[in-house]
Amino acid sequence: MQEAVVRPGNLRALLGTLRCLRVLEVHSPISALLAEQSRLETGPGQWVAYDAIWSSSLTDSTQRGLPDIEILSPSNRLQGIREIFDVCDLPMIYDADTGGKPEHFAIHVKMLERAGVGAVVIEDKCGLKKNSLFGTDVTQAQESIEAFCQKIRLGRASRSPEGMMIIARCESLILDRGMDEAMERCLAYAEAGADGIMIHSRRKDGEEVLEFARRFRVHYPDVPLVCVPTSYAHLSFDQLQEAGFNVVIYANHMLRSAYMAMKEVATGILAHGRTLEVEQRCLGIDEILDLIPGTR
């Protein structure tokens, strides 16, 4: 049997040494290079950088011009993952949507672990996947607690000992089913062996994710907690870290910003009939030739 790839900056090791991880969405090798190379000096000898990368099902399907309905399987996305790992050493957290059928998920766990993925996130919805930020505006159904716990257990049984992490994502707050149900589900998922819990919310004030963290920590002080502050963008990394989160994922911003930049350039060329007016928005030719080692 092919052995699992042990990548530099193992995700488990990082979670054991850092209080909270900064994770950035990537959808291509160039975006992964940017994530790995982005550093900000915050003081003499002090820097902040991204600790890991996020492979988003939304951005992976969007960049292919496909709807975000779980249309891409891990098999469809595996070549892109390998291309990213060819140029980037940061550990990857993989967005697996619902994980599909439990039997399929067990196989995909082995496949992703062998490719070097550090963690896989599965959400507790079933049926045709719709993006969570639609909330109750579209029909979305949650899996039963026992069925989802069984999927977690099957995934754990398929991986190597202490191998790729399996993180359970709870959609109860997204679907307005209340804090008590979210707690019931997440406590059950942790009991079933989930290596981490992702709590998702579309409320802009962020208060319910902060409350969830407070309540969950009473029961599980050490299980990694993950959040995705797309809706509550005003909450800072430091605030989320202080609230008890161990992983903060900026889940779609690289593709969203790239799209806006490309759209402005494309319409600018049409508007002016030339590229002069948009050149200042573009990477210089010399810079792009020097961007990748070995180009010159």
Distance between the termini: 40 Å
| Helix content bin | 40-55%
The proportion of strand residues reads 15-25%
List low-confidence stretches.
Answer: none
Class based on secondary structure composition and strand pairing: alpha/beta
Shape: globular
What is the number of helical segments per DSSP (H or I, 4+ residues)? Answer: 11
CATH hierarchy, class of the largest domain:
Alpha Beta
The tally of domains stands at 2
The CATH superfamily title of the largest domain = Phosphoenolpyruvate-binding domains
Q: Tell me the total number of β-strands.
A: 12
For the largest sheet, list the strands in their spatial order.
1-4-5-6-9-10-11-12
Pfam family, one: PEP_mutase
EC number: 5.4.2.9
Keywords: Isomerase, Metal-binding
Protein name: phosphoenolpyruvate mutase
What does this structure look like?
GO terms for molecular function: metal ion binding; phosphoenolpyruvate mutase activity. This is phosphoenolpyruvate mutase. The chain has 296 residues and is of the alpha/beta class. Helix content is 42%, strand content 17%. It contains eleven helices and twelve strands. Strands 1-4-5-6-9-10-11-12 form an eight-stranded parallel beta barrel, surrounded by eight helices.
Summarize the structure.
The chain folds into 2 domains: 11-251, Phosphoenolpyruvate-binding domains (TIM Barrel), CATH 3.20.20.60; 254-296, no CATH class. The protein is 42% helix and 17% strand. It is built from 11 helices and 12 strands.
Based on the model shown, name its key terms.
alpha/beta, 2 domains, 12 strands, 296 residues, eight-stranded parallel barrel, globular, single chain, 11 helices, TIM Barrel, phosphoenolpyruvate mutase activity, PEnolPyrv_PMutase_core
